[in-house]
Structure formats: C-alpha cells, structure tokens
Request: fold
Amino acid sequence: MNEQQFDKHLHINTVGEQYGFPKLAHYHRYEPTPYRGLEQLFAAYQMPDNPVFIDMGCGKGRVPIYVHHKFHIPTIGIEMDAGFYTEAEENKRSYLQKMRAHAPIKFIHTIAESYEIKSRDNVFFFFNPFSIHIFRTVIHNIWKSYEQRMRDIHIILYYPPYDYLQFLHHGTPFELLHEVHLENETNINERLCVFELKKA
Reply:
C-alpha cells in the first residue's frame, strides 16, 4: 500500500503538505514517518515484553495509530503544536469509530522534555523531532525513570541525526540492537536504529 492507501485503511488523514514551522527554536518542522519504513522496521524488530509505545513529536498521530493497529498495545503521542495535536485527536476518533472499539491510544499536548516518563513506558520513537539539547534532556528523563523501575527500554530513531547517535553511543548505557536500512534508498541516513537498555 502507498501512503494514501495506508491512511485510508486506518481511516485517518496524515498525508499531504505539512504547514507551519515550530515556534520554539530547538524543535524541527514536522514530517510524517513513511509507512514503508514502519513496515520494514517491524518486519525485522521485536519490541520488549509488555510494550507501551511513546512517539516523541507525533504530529497528526500516524505512528501511534499505526502501531496500535498492528500490535494492539497502548500507544502515546507527545505533540507540542496545538494544530497537530487537534488533528491527532480527530484521527484517533475516526480510527476508533472505524474499529468500533475503545483503544488505549492517548495524545498529550506538551513539549517532550515536560512529559513525565511513566514506569511502564518502554519503547520511545523519535523521527528527528528536536535538537540534541532536548534529546539529551528526554533521554535523561528516561534514565531517571529506569532508575526508579528497571526494565528493558528501547529507543527507536528514524533518519537518526549524527549527534543523536554519538550521544547514545558515547554518553549513555544504551547499546545498538537493530539497524534497518530502507529498501530502494541510496541515502545511508534513510534507516532506523534501535537502541536497547537492558534490565539490570
């Protein structure tokens, strides 16, 4: 399926031109994660036990809805832009109406560094949503949560920036678990990297 067909299948609207620029300098312009990348990721990678999936910078809600549809697990989208947050909520309503069921999908309107990491949160997805400064803060918050309740935690990076990779490799105990290079792509950055923090 192409992007439009995936959206239609999920009964959501996340395709098309993305408007506006972030009001905060350290946040990047929103771009939806390609479905083909998600398909390739989950064909090669398995989430930890009892996953709770967090999308940091979820935009219109594509990834949390897709992940819930595929795995029927709790998903949470964090979004700072009020317009995208509203569209994500509308997409959730449309998706749930199609599924005719209640689903543990939640969208939160806040900046990523203000989200309080819960003790069950264990899979975190990033599509280059903000600067390395904010990324460090979010990873620090995840680490503090890990110290309070040790568990297997995964960090998924799509199109990972070099400074994100350097920080995880050299500044944290996270270790590279999987690397998925997207098919039919010549740009080496078109990949997904999964880092893991194992329960001690």
Notes: The chain has a mean pLDDT of 90.
